């Protein structure tokens, strides 16, 4: 369905816009000469809703812009979930361990056949970037479990 | 002459061993990210932002700027040899560049793009040197109403030039503006849309959003169907174009550099657009337009010259008006802010060492790039044999470190992932991502200057229409929104020429 992207998009935008308007009213709007914190977001929210309604109307009148179909979803899904889990575990596990696991998963998903390659690349990448950034470039990365060793 | 004296002191700064080293690191990294598809200059600049915290601001901009224009040199390599753009500004180079490679003329194609990039870069630096001080003087006369209108024009430009429909661009722009309002409000110190989360009081970081939308979003799209790439085994005997080539394309080089310089100055313009326009113009003025798409060297020379000119000249609005026109420049804007330098009309006067040092470094950097990309081109070609799946892991790790190091919290990595999924979805629904990210920064400037103007005028919106410069800027912005016809024409040409969306 060609219009689906437009319809979902405009509902999403309308939702954001209305939520912002409600939030902005709570922050108080003030008047144009003495605007309060809610003034600018409120105006922006209104414009967003208007634009989304136009998009919706266009979509229903058959002038949708079209959307690309989804391909195989499992690979992007694994990366998204993996990365989210990564962000939750980063501090406790530490950069090196978390990154080794994440890159093992990603490389496996992308069809790296030999285990040797898989493990070698993950190790080199995570340990290498850790030392490059944490030690050489002064960008501290979390040490996690390896705190005592590093 | 004053300019020469200033340039001399600029060279004194740029030629110090450390600055020379930072410049060299910048252009080498830039060429590398240009060559490697999937990792764009903005993501790389974001990765290196925290590294620059401890540098002095001049060195920081020298290095980050080098990444940006270095990528313009490198991008063509991938386009020519693989038929895949190394970065978005080299999309059109695929058309004739790859054809030339198939005809066994990869060498001259690579040579033409390196020489063109060099020439375009130099022309643009000279332009920057000559017009920036004058433009800054104009900028000094700007009050809040003029700034408001200028930012609106910049936003409209970004929407107009983005690859999807104007309506969708506007929606993305408004979402970007709203994302920019999260956190402490600049005028009153009130918390806005933080949902009581401490993490959000500092605002949502533009770097995190940019990396999510562009870095991770792109990876997610590519993961749906990992492509199999074939490296074109080209013989690289002789990278210099021959006399016949030169006869054909010397004028393209000059046209490309002029077009690129001009388009780069426009807010919302930049390297990507300039390469498309330059290609279209070449085809239009050519006596043999039928040769285009079949390996015409003009079709390589013009866009490659233009994109490097535009990359350089897009520093002009940043350094003179404090308005970042594209993503990479917005990242450099952030870097300056971190160093306590507010880009604007006063910058050249207050920090002449920064302005002239960066200009001198660009001249040096372009010369270094010519050396890196002509004699050493073979090395970069080797880089292309890295399989995509390894590249994916590298891109992910780059994004992780970049997002993490903004505030040193894992929270930002999670936030980046959320924006990555958002980026994936809007790509599927064909909403453009660039206006959103740019609006996050421009929206904050807009709010401040709009509030100041309204307070000045006692709440009268007519103030924007009473000041001549402001009216002109708003009229231009309005005109852009009212010319969808010209735009759709241009878009159709573009997609029919390419058969791909950039």
Structure description:
The complex is a heterodimer of chains A (150) and B (502). With 150 residues, chain A is an all-alpha fold. Chain A has 2 domains: 57 residues; 75 residues. In chain A, 68% of the residues lie in helices and 0% in strands. Chain A contains 5 helices and no strands. Chain A starts with a helix and ends in a 14-residue tail after the last helix. Chain B has 502 residues and is mainly alpha-helical. A two-stranded antiparallel sheet of chain B has the order 1-2. The C terminus of chain B is likely disordered. Chains A and B meet through helix 1, helix 2, helix 3, helix 4 and helix 5 of A and helix 8, helix 9, helix 18, helix 19 and helix 20 of B.
Topology:
The complex is a heterodimer of chains A (150) and B (502).
Chain A: H1 4-26, H2 39-60, H3 74-93, H4 95-109, H5 115-136
Helix pairs in contact in A: 1-2, 3-4, 4-5
Chain B: H1 2-14, H2 17-35, H3 41-52, H4 57-82, H5 93-102, H6 106-140, H7 144-161, H8 166-181, E1 183-184, E2 191-192, H9 206-224, H10 243-265, H11 271-285, H12 298-313, H13 315-321, H14 327-338, H15 347-350, H16 352-373, H17 377-383, H18 388-407, H19 410-428, H20 434-456, H21 463-466, H22 468-481, H23 484-498
Antiparallel strand pairs in B: 1-2
Helix pairs in contact in B: 1-16, 2-4, 2-16, 3-4, 3-14, 3-18, 4-5, 4-6, 4-12, 4-14, 4-16, 5-6, 5-12, 6-10, 6-12, 6-13, 6-16, 7-8, 7-20, 7-22, 8-20, 9-18, 9-19, 10-11, 10-12, 11-12, 18-19
Q: What is shown here, in short?
A:
The complex is a heterodimer of chains A (150) and B (502). Chain A has 150 residues and is an all-alpha fold.
What is the CA-atom radius of gyration of chain B, in angstroms? 22 Å
Strand order of the largest sheet of chain B: 1-2
Rg of chain A from C-alpha positions? 24 Å
Overall outline of chain A: flat
N- to C-terminal distance of chain A: 54 Å
Approximately how much beta-strand content do the residues of chain A carry?
under 5%
Number of domains of chain B: 1
Structural class of chain B: mainly alpha
Largest sheet of chain B: 2 strands, antiparallel
- What is the element string of chain B, with H for helices and E for strands? HHHHHHHHEEHHHHHHHHHHHHHHH
């Amino acid at each position: 369905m060609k219009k689906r992207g437009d319809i979902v998009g405009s509902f999403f935008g309308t939702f954001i816009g209305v939520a912002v308007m409600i939030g902005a009213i709570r922050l108080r709007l003030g008047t144009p000469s003495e605007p309060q914190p809610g003034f600018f977001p409120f105006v922006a929210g209104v414009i967003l809703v208007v634009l989304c309604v136009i998009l919706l109307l266009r979509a229903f009148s058959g002038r949708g812009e079209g959307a690309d179909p989804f391909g195989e979803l499992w690979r992007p899904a694994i990366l998204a979930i993996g990365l989210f889990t990564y962000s939750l575990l980063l501090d406790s596990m530490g950069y090196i361990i978390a990154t080794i696991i994440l890159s093992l998963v990603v490389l496996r998903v992308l069809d790296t056949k030999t285990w040797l390659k898989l493990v070698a690349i993950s190790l080199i990448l995570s340990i290498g970037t850790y030392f490059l950034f944490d030690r050489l470039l002064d960008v501290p990365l979390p040490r996690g479990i390896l705190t005592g060793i590093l | 002459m004053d300019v020469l004296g200033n340039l001399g002191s600029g060279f004194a700064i740029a030629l110090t061993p450390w600055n020379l080293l930072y410049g060299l690191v910048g252009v080498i990294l830039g060429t590398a990210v240009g060559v490697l598809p999937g990792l764009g200059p903005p993501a790389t600049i974001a990765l290196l932002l925290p590294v620059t915290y401890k540098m002095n601001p001049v060195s920081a901009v020298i290095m980050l700027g080098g990444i940006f224009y270095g990528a313009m040199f490198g991008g063509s390599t991938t386009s020519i040899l693989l038929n895949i753009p190394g970065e978005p500004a080299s999309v059109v180079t695929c058309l004739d560049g790859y054809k030339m490679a198939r005809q066994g003329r990869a060498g001259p194609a690579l040579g033409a793009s390196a020489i063109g990039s060099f020439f375009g870069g130099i022309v643009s630096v000279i332009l920057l040197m000559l017009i920036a001080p004058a433009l800054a003087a104009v900028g000094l006369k700007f009050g809040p109403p003029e700034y408001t209108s200028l930012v609106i024009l910049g936003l409209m430009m970004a929407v107009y030039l983005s690859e999807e429909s104007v309506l969708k661009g506007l929606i993305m722009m408004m979402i970007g503006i709203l994302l920019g309002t999260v956190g402490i409000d600049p005028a009153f110190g009130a918390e806005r849309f933080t949902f009581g989360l401490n993490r959000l009081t500092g605002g949502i970081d533009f770097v995190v959003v940019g990396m999510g939308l562009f870095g991770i979003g792109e990876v997610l799209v590519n993961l749906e169907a990992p492509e199999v790439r074939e490296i074109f085994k080209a013989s690289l005997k002789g990278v210099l174009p021959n006399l016949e080539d030169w006869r054909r394309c010397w004028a393209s080089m000059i046209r490309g550099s002029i077009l690129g310089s001009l388009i780069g100055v426009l807010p919302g313009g930049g390297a990507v657009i300039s390469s498309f326009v330059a290609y279209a113009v070449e085809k239009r003025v050519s006596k043999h337009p039928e040769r285009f798409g079949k390996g015409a060297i003009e079709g390589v020379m013009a866009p490659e010259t233009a994109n490097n000119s535009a990359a350089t000249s897009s520093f002009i609005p940043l350094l003179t008006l404090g308005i970042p026109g594209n993503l990479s420049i917005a990242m450099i804007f952030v870097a300056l802010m971190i160093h306590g330098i507010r880009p604007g009309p006063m910058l050249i006067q207050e920090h002449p060492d920064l302005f002239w040092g960066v200009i001198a470094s660009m001249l040096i950097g372009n010369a270094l790039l010519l050396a890196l990309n002509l004699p050493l081109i073979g090395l970069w070609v080797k880089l292309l044999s890295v399989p995509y799946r390894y590249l994916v892991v590298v891109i992910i790790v780059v994004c992780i470190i970049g997002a993490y190091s903004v505030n040193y919290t894992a929270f930002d990595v999670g936030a980046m992932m959320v924006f990555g999924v958002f980026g994936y979805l809007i790509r599927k629904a064909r909403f453009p991502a660039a206006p959103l990210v740019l609006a996050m920064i421009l929206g904050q400037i807009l709010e401040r200057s709009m509030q100041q103007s309204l307070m000045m005028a006692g709440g009268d919106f007519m103030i924007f229409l009473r000041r001549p410069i402001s009216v002109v800027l708003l009229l231009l912005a309005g005109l852009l929104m009212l010319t969808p016809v010209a735009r759709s024409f241009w878009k159709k040409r573009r997609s029919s020429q390419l058969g791909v969306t950039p």
